[in-house]
Amino acid sequence: MGCRSEIRVWSENEQVAFAAMRAAWEGMNKLEMTLSDWNPQAEVAQLNTQRKMKLSPELLTAARTARKLARSTGGAFDFEKGGLFFAWRQYRSKGELLDSVEAQRLAMLPPAHLSADGFAELASGNRWDFGGIGKGMAADLAGDILRTHGCAHFQVDCSGDLLVGEAPHSESGWSIATELKGMMLPVPNNHAIACSGDLHQFVLKDGIRYSHIIDPRDGQAVQNQLLTFVIAPTATAADAWATACSVDPTQIPPKGIRFISPPSDLVP
């Protein structure tokens, strides 16, 4: 998925641990070939090219899950605005900004038609982009596989989207370090934490900082320079809600999901 990932397992049986991790990596690699819009052989990349095709059960489940999260976030997270995100990536790579009128037009493109028999048809000029949720889905899948193999004590880190199982040494939870001046966050067992912000990806234009995070509702780059952490029961929910809260800090996550905004003096 274009990011560095890491799996750690605590186990008294090394063979069991390595077998579990191998199975988890295989599952994540298979999911990447479902959700990636970068690899032309991946299913989403093929859908974006062909515009209409029958989805695999895995992609159909992922799309339905992502749609539910898009609705719950009021559209602040939306994987179906891939045409907008793709256009912004092209301009941002050149240090430029997408024209605001074109950005708004792309933001108004309708979602894909998803039929009961599993066919998806994209509107002309639009794409699917699971970049705001795919890492979380991969972490959750890896966690499920590790548990199935009898490994309950683990960490799955997908470029900062972190899913934890039971803490080692029978501890009640985890203390997770962040990159902000030693800031630590407590995370309960079998929960996830995700971070979203523009610490590393942004464009400076006329003294204004434009984030790589795009508001899918109006097509404009976020300018609030807000760093958000979200703790949730699943990495999928944490991933999507971290993006949503970066787009719109007024969003109120549902019960069971915690949104944390560090003090401004901690954020570079």
For the structure shown, list the relevant keywords.
268 residues, alpha+beta, T-fold, six-stranded antiparallel β-sheet, three-stranded antiparallel β-sheet, 7 helices, globular
Q: So, CATH architecture?
A: Roll
Helix content: 25-40%
- Low-confidence segments: none
Mean pLDDT: 92
User: CATH homologous superfamily name?
Assistant: ApbE-like domains
Strand count, sense and barrel status of the largest sheet are:
6 strands, antiparallel
Q: Note the beta-strand portion.
A: 15-25%
* Count of separate DSSP helical elements: 7
Cross-sheet strand order for the largest sheet: 1-5-6-9-12-13
Domains counted in the coordinates: how many?
1
Q: How does this structure look, described?
A:
This protein is an alpha+beta fold and 268 residues long. The protein has one domain: T-fold, CATH 3.10.520.10. 35% of the residues lie in helices and 20% in strands. The chain has 7 helices and 13 strands. It has a 6-stranded antiparallel beta sheet with strand order 1-5-6-9-12-13, covered by helices on one side. Strands 2-4-3 form a 3-stranded antiparallel beta sheet, with helices on one face. A two-stranded antiparallel ribbon has the order 7-8. Strand 3 (113-114) and strand 4 form a beta hairpin. It is globular. The mean pLDDT is 92.
